Every structure is written in C-alpha cells, then in structure tokens.
C-alpha cells in the first residue's frame, strides 16, 4: 500500500501537471453491488452525482492528509482518493488497469490505475474535510515542523501496551506510516517490532523519531517505494526500495555496522514484520 512518501510524491506530481486544469468529463469502470448506497464512485448511483458535480470544475490545488490525496475544486468540493493496495494516478499515459478517467481540457487525461480495485474515491465539501469520517480520526502528520520529539512520545502513549510495529502503523496514532517505513524505522532504532511501546527506552525513542523523519523525507526525495505496484504520476518507479535495510530482506545478512545477525520475518496482526533478531532488542 502506498505510504506517506508515495502519496506525497503523487501529490507533488498532480500539482505539477493538473493544478489549474479543468475537468471536462469523467468516466469509470468501477462498479460493485457491494457499494450500493455508499458515498464512493464504485456505487453507480453515487458516481452519477459525482460526475455532475466535478464536470466543468477547475482543480485549484492538491494536498495530502495521511495516505489520502485531496484534489480541491473551484466549486468548494474536494475529491478524496485513498489509493489502497495497488492504486496510483498517471497523467496522460495509458497504462494497464485504468479504473477512473478524468478528461481535462486540451485532450489531456488523468487516469487512476488500480489492479485490485481497492482504491477509494469520493467527493466532500472542502470545509467539511477535517470532520469527515475519512479524516477526522487521523493522528498528526509526522513531518510537520511542529511535530516534536515530545509529541511523538505522547502519541505512542496512546497505546502504551501495544506492539510498537502495530502502533507505528496505526493512523489514529500517527498518520501515514505503513509496513515498509515502520520496518525501516525500527531497524534503524534497534527496536524489535514486538516491543511493548511503554517499555522502549528514551534513547531508542529518540532514535525512532529521528529515523522516522529522515526515512520519510528520503522516501519523498527518492520518489517513493516501488517494491510493489506503486508508480508516480509519469508512470515511473520510485527508488526507495534500493535503500531497504529490513523490509523484505529476511534471510539476508544484516547490513548494520558490526552486526552479524541474519534478518528474519514474523507476522503481527496479519502484517509481516522484517527485523534483525540480533541488534533489534525486545523491550517488554
């Protein structure tokens, strides 16, 4: 699933390609009886209203909140997209698995490719975004200038007995961190993913905070992680996967200086955690 760096990379790409452009029309191949009555474009009745409301409107700005893309329109409405497992926006380039097609002026197109059809797209009044069911429960943004080390510690205290891998991935605690970056953060900070949040020493918490900020920024700088399906707005792969030290590295020698461990993998809450059992300590 695209995480904060991949979503921010997409937002940056959208601002450079479609901001200021007018939506001439929109079409979709999404359709599912399971979404009947729901405010998502997979519901055919909802899509009819969605189409009416976005046609002829200008995209004035694009922002990110957590893993959500927010395309603000001149009408005071915002198109919210959560790319889920395999979704990604592509500008003016035909790619496989196109599910949503925004036709823009001068014959350009913005496509949403989504192989597994899990992505969510809906329309919300811009002034109601923060109170919407999609955003109201999200935790703070980890890269905001005012998100301090103390703020980080206080957010983790929301789940004091939780396993740290799951706590980092909880969007109600901190927004935007998923499987890839949580593995990399914990590897850097010498913390085992099964550690109890309240038992992690101050030094390691400081290292986690530092690693979180540095790795998320690096992910954005490298255009995201394309270990799986993610592609940027031009259909290009990101490069963060070239810098993995833990994620999907199980059975490989640990690359931490002075460590002679071999990376392992375990399942926590139906998600895989990749870690070094030698230098990543369990705090319980």
Notes on the protein architecture:
With 284 residues, the chain is of the alpha+beta class. It has two domains: 4-65 and 67-131, N-terminal domain of MutM-like DNA repair proteins (Alpha-Beta Barrel), CATH 3.20.190; 149-275, Helicase, Ruva Protein, domain 3, CATH 1.10.8. It contains six helices and ten strands; from the N terminus they run αβαβββββββααααββ. The protein has helices at 4-17, 44-54, 149-156, 164-169, 179-189, 202-221; strands at residues 23-28, 59-65, 68-73, 77-82, 87-91, 98-104, 109-114, 120-125, 264-268, 271-275. Strands 1-6-7-5 form a four-stranded antiparallel sheet, covered by helices on one side. β2 and β3 form a beta hairpin. α1 packs parallel to α6 and α5 (179-189) packs across α6. The longest helix has 20 residues, at 202-221.
Multimeric status of the protein: single chain
Uncertain stretches: none
Summed up, the domain count is 2
Number of strands: 10
Determine the structural class based on helices, strands and strand pairing.
Answer: alpha+beta
Strand content: 15-25%
Helix content: 10-25%
CATH domain class of the largest domain: Alpha Beta
From the N-terminal CA to the C-terminal CA, the straight-line distance is 29 Å
In one word, what is the shape?
elongated
Q: In CATH terms, what is the architecture of the largest domain? A: Alpha-Beta Barrel
**Major sheet description:** 4 strands, antiparallel
Radius of gyration from the alpha-carbon trace, in angstroms: 20 Å
Say what the CATH topology of the largest domain is. N-terminal domain of MutM-like DNA repair proteins
Number of contiguous helices: 6
Spell out the CATH superfamily of the largest domain: MutM-like, N-terminal
> Averaged pLDDT, please?
97
The largest sheet has its strands arranged as: 1-6-7-5
Spell the H/E element sequence.
Answer: HEHEEEEEEEHHHHEE
């Amino acid at each position: 699933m695209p995480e904060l760096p991949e979503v921010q990379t997409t937002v940056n790409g959208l601002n450079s390609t479609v901001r200021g452009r007018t939506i001439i029309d929109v079409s979709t191949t999404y359709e599912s009886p399971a979404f009947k009555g729901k405010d998502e474009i997979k519901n055919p009745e909802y899509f009819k209203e969605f189409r009416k409301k976005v046609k002829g409107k200008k995209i004035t700005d694009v922002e990110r909140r957590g893993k959500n893309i927010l395309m603000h329109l001149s009408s005071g409405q915002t198109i919210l997209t959560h790319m889920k497992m395999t979704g990604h926006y592509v500008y003016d380039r035909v790619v496989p698995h196109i599910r949503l097609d925004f036709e823009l002026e001068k014959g350009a197109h913005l496509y949403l490719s989504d192989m597994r059809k899990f992505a969510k797209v809906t329309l919300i009044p811009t002034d109601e975004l923060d109170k919407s069911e999609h955003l109201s429960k999200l935790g703070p943004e980890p890269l905001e200038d005012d998100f301090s080390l103390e703020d980080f510690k206080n957010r983790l205290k929301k789940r004091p007995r939780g396993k740290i891998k799951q706590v980092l991935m909880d969007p109600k605690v901190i927004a935007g961190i998923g499987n890839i970056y949580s593995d990399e953060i914990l590897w850097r900070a010498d913390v085992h993913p099964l550690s109890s949040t309240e038992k992690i020493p101050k030094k390691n918490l400081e290292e986690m905070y530092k690693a979180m900020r540095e790795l998320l920024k690096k992910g954005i700088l490298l255009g995201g992680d394309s270990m799986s399906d993610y592609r940027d707005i031009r259909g290009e792969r990101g490069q963060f996967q070239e810098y993995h030290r833990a994620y999907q590295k199980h059975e490989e020698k640990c690359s931490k200086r002075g460590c002679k461990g071999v990376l392992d993998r375990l399942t926590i809450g139906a998600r895989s955690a990749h870690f070094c059992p030698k230098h990543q300590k369990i705090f319980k």
